[in-house]
Amino acid sequence: MATEKKTSPVSDVGAWAMNVVSSVGIIMANKQLMSANGYSFTFATTLTGFHFAVTALVGFVSNSTGYTSAKHVPLWELLWFSIVANMSITGMNLSLMLNSVGFYQISKLSMIPVVCVMEWILHSKRYSKEVKAAVVVVVIGVGVCTVTDVKVNAKGFICACVAVLATSLQQISIGSLQKKYSIGAFELLSKTAPIQALSLLVFGPFIDYYLSGRLISDYMKTISSGAIIFILISCSLAVFCNISQYLCIGRFSAVSFQVLGHMKTVAVLTLGWLLFDSELTFKNIAGMLVAVAGMVIYSWAVEVEKAANKSVPISKHSLTEEELTLLKDGLEKGPIKDSEFGESK
Length: 345
Description:
- By secondary structure, this protein is mainly alpha-helical.
- Helices cover 77% and strands 0% of the residues.
């Protein structure tokens, strides 16, 4: 049986910090790149294709230089994962376009309970009441500070449902694929990134034209040096963002990653207020405080759950050769005492 790799608290904090800094940074860069007051680059799906293309290039260089090793993952699983991941990206973009910002935020908040239910269905995973309570506090806090007007239409609702289900399944699959094939976060990313990049760069311009009514080919004819610089910054940050996402989900869980994602929302709102003069009301501040409190409670609840799991004896599903020999001898010599079973070695 393969031994499970232990990670130090310092490296865990580093993975979280990398994800928070890169995610918030990429949002700030994309805001400058895509806003009307910035460079009006409204091609979000194609930009994501650029992100994965650069990530794939970094993975290729890493494998070629021997820094990382390429492990085998069946092609059909990589294709399936890439389809789900691209459905997540496209669904999110369509949901943002067709729905109000309020309903879009509600759909993002719904991902935590959806991930919990899907992990329960797919992996029989259960959560303690403390973790459930903490998740509720985080969701309420983020909901208070982000949700405003809520308008729903049929197309937008369908796109939101597809986006939530695809994103939840993608994030669960990241962790399960790493465990199933004993593959590292960056090694898995280097295998999926080329497929996602190719498909997004092929279909992305058409999706973006549907969303914005603009052709990226027309934009590229008159692109400024400032827009190119911010595209490069966005792609560079995306490499760290993608790697840290796989690291965090592989080390922790999809639910923990969702909770972290909502804390990034709080950070983005704060930075928007500091850097872009965005309005910050008492409602926003109150919601942020509740969300931060929920995050603290969630961290405590996860540690309590880990401690409880460690105190439970580990049950074995198979016997070693030595144990089979002892069992055989015991059956031949006489009855075996109950105390010989259930001891964890």
